UniProtKB/TrEMBL annotation:
The keyword Aminoacyl-tRNA synthetase does not apply. It comes from the Bacteria. This is Cation diffusion facilitator family transporter. Keywords: Membrane, Transmembrane, Transmembrane helix, Transport. Residues 18-211 form the Cation efflux protein transmembrane domain. Gene3D superfamilies: Cation efflux protein transmembrane domain, Cation efflux protein, cytoplasmic domain. The lineage of its organism: Bacteria, Pseudomonadati, Bacteroidota, Sphingobacteriia, Sphingobacteriales. GO terms for cellular component: membrane. Its main location: membrane. Residues 215-293 form the Cation efflux protein cytoplasmic domain. One of its GO terms (molecular function) is monoatomic cation transmembrane transporter activity. InterPro entries: Cation_efflux (IPR002524), Cation_efflux_CTD (IPR027470), Cation_efflux_CTD_sf (IPR036837), Cation_efflux_TM (IPR058533), Cation_efflux_TMD_sf (IPR027469), CDF_Transporter (IPR050291). It is a multi-pass membrane protein. It comes from Arcticibacter pallidicorallinus.
Length: 298
């Protein structure tokens, strides 16, 4: 089966699994390189990657839970687990950033050996791999309109940022020699600040989804256009779209001729619902309200 044919939830889970596998390899490489290369920035970078692994695992659990079918207690399904996972991921990012900054500040004025040159080559490879992962995972996140997958992508970008900051700090320390060892620690502090910035960029859309904020106007307009295209629908009076994880639920008020029978109005409502459900596989439910339309000419 081609990747583009995968169910959205399965695609999200497989993307997360790929990120976890790559991050496990990188955290081991960076931790060993940081230890033997005498670079605190690289050790801090490995710590941030370890936080990535934990948060990605939580995302995987959240996505798995969101796949559970609707039941009596959760008639709209369990999709809210997906943005909740995004919130947890962002909090992990903030916690990792605080830990990195605290330890770097504590280490700045402590005499220590400067980093080794080989750590620079390790970081070049890490930055390239993590930037590739960011672009791939973000592409999937945008395709699925998944806040959790986008949050996971930002994890990879934040990892690339910390690695880039570590690279700059180590480069300054290596070139400057004695007296410039602190550049390695300052790089870790700057990286921590950038991680916090990314974390707050993740939090807002996740909270918006949890609070049932209206999705983009483009989605609402597509729903309205689909409803208007159904025969005997005069106009769409109201359109509310609720996002539940990777799925959408629609609450639509349509206007039909006031002289139609109840049975005819019911048939039109079903036609609208069927049209919406077929137009987008992520629309899992639609409630259609029929309102009478009376022409002003009458």
């Amino acid at each position: 089966m081609k990747d583009i044919d995968l169910d959205p939830s399965i695609k999200a889970i497989r993307t997360t699994q790929l990120g976890i596998a790559v991050s496990i390899v990188l955290v081991v490489v960076k931790a060993l390189a940081g230890h033997f290369g005498h670079s605190y920035a690289l050790i801090a970078d490995a710590t941030e990657t370890a936080a990535d692994i934990v948060s990605s695992f939580l995302l995987w659990l959240g996505l798995r839970y969101s796949l559970k079918p609707a039941d009596a207690r959760h008639p709209y399904g369990h999709g809210k687990a997906e943005p909740l996972a995004a919130v947890v991921i962002s909090l992990f990012l903030i916690a990792a950033a605080v830990w990195i900054a605290y330890n770097a500040i504590s280490f700045i004025n402590t005499p220590h050996q400067g980093p080794e040159v080989f750590t620079l080559w390790i970081l070049i490879a890490v930055i390239a791999i993590k930037e590739f992962l960011y672009r791939y995972v973000m592409k999937v996140g945008k395709e699925l309109n998944s806040q959790a997958v986008k949050a996971d992508a930002f994890h990879h970008r934040s990892d690339a940022i910390t690695s880039a900051a570590a690279f700059i700090g180590i480069l300054i320390a290596v070139i400057g020699g004695s007296g410039y060892e602190g550049a390695d620690d300052w790089a870790a502090i700057i990286a921590a600040a950038l991680i916090v910035y990314n974390a707050f960029n993740i939090l807002k859309p996740a909270f918006d989804e949890i609070m049932d904020s209206a999705p983009s106007g483009e989605i609402v307009n597509r729903v309205k256009d689909s409803a208007r295209s159904v025969q005997d629908v005069v106009e769409v009076e109201k359109c509310y779209v609720r996002k539940m994880g990777l799925d959408y639920f629609i609450d639509l008020h349509i206007l039909v001729d006031a002289n139609l029978t109840v049975s005819a109005g019911h048939t039109i409502a079903h036609m609208v619902k069927d049209k919406l459900m077929k137009s987008n596989s992520q629309i899992k439910g639609a409630i259609i309200h029929v309102e009478p339309y009376v022409s002003n000419a009458n």
